[in-house]
Description:
Strand content: 5-15%
Strand order of the largest sheet: 2-3-7-6
Number of strands: 7
Number of helices: 13
Bound molecules: flavin-adenine dinucleotide
CATH class of the domain at 271-396: Mainly Alpha
Amino acid sequence: MATDNLTTSSVSSDDPSGEVLRQLDAWLDIAWDPQRPLGEWWSLLADEGWGFPSWPVEWFGRGLPSSTARRARIELVHRGALGPPAGIAPFLAAPTLLAHGTDEQLRRFMPGIAKGTDVWCQLFSEPGSGSDLASLATRAELDGDEYVVTGQKVWNTGAQFADWAILMARTDIDQPKHKGISYFAFDMRQPGVEVRPLKEMTGGATFNEVFLTEARVPVANLLGAPGEGWRVAMTTLSHERDNENPAGGGGGGTFIGRPDLSMPVADFMRPDPDHRPDGFEIAMSGGMGELPAKLAREFGRLDDAVTRQQVADLWAHRQLIRLNGQRGKARVKQGQPPGAESSTGKLMSSDLGRKMREVGLAIEGAHGQLMDTDAPHDGLLQAYGLFQPAMSIAGGTDEVQRSIIGERVLGLPKEPDVSRDVAWRDVKVGTQKRD
Ligand SMILES: Cc1cc2nc3c(=O)[nH]c(=O)nc-3n(C[C@H](O)[C@H](O)[C@H](O)COP(=O)(O)OP(=O)(O)OC[C@H]3O[C@@H](n4cnc5c(N)ncnc54)[C@H](O)[C@@H]3O)c2cc1C
């Protein structure tokens, strides 16, 4: 399929969004064709910067402000066109690479991320190191121009499909726990990497345990300097807690998995009648958004004052999350370090999830006990409800977010951490449990 004459001119970053949307519309008139192979469409979106318009022009973006980029994303949806690839690659790996990667690393990794050819996962958590991530025990020991990596990771979303991982591993055990960690772009397709899926109460298996046994990663794949991994990870975590992150939801395709890039886009977009989205997919796609209002209408509860108030409250809650996200971005744009907005946003989102589940199930009444195709909307609410507790855990638990808000917003004293200044080799918490 011809891809000539599809180049749109670049737009300056202070261009009002109306002009940007006109340019996108004109481009879509020519370029959007649902019969194109999926890989070709994602490639076009990337080359034109319409997939991730807030990324820099030289790295598959248009350098647009996030509010304009968001409108462009909505416009793609309105036009019925498929958005860019979703998943950990654009959601977490790309912003971390853009902030800390060398030109060589960006050249190597950004094309596969922007065009959806490479699937990434996140190898951070360990059996004893989740909230206290800095206590992690996976070791990376220097051997010539490579590190040798040994340890166990857990809860790694989509690791069973991944080509690459963002990996945190300890390179210096004599430093305090936050200081001896390094951050790598890690090849998942090598001997010494064993991925074991974990079955969840949702019925799905999105998480994995990942066992690393003398796996290798070149020094050239370090993001930031050795021992600076904690600082680099803060970039990743601020994006993970960012509910406005354009790659987080509403992108093209599933968040987890490996799509067939040769299939026509139309086939990719066509709902599979046999596929029941699990709660993770529903949460990531923002698919719950209007459901409580829809249910209230269908169950004849729109005249009920309490239900009306609850549905309006959910709507207001969503707007607050959006505005809070924009405030956080404005801060960063002004050159300030990421603030507590990501924590407040994350907390508001898990709260919203709980309320959605409870309001929705109250509206459904006895129907709320049904599952799958027996339940209203093929069990969308039930699948979401089973997944919802995970939203209070992923990317930092509610309790941890509250501590961050207490310290950064309310100026409360820092939570005591007896192991903070102790050399990691002497620490007796986390995965490294010794007598
Ligand atoms: C949907 C989902 C996707 C995930 N995807 C990934 C992934 O792709 N890659 C990855 O590396 N990890 C992933 N995780 C793991 C996630 O980052 C951890 O589950 C999370 O950091 C919490 O760690 P933990 O499970 O070890 O719980 P713990 O840290 O053991 O916490 C247990 C309980 O103790 C509380 N607690 C702990 N410390 C404190 C404290 N200081 N103050 C108050 N309360 C505290 C917690 O709030 C929690 O209630 C995912 C998790 C979920 C749910």
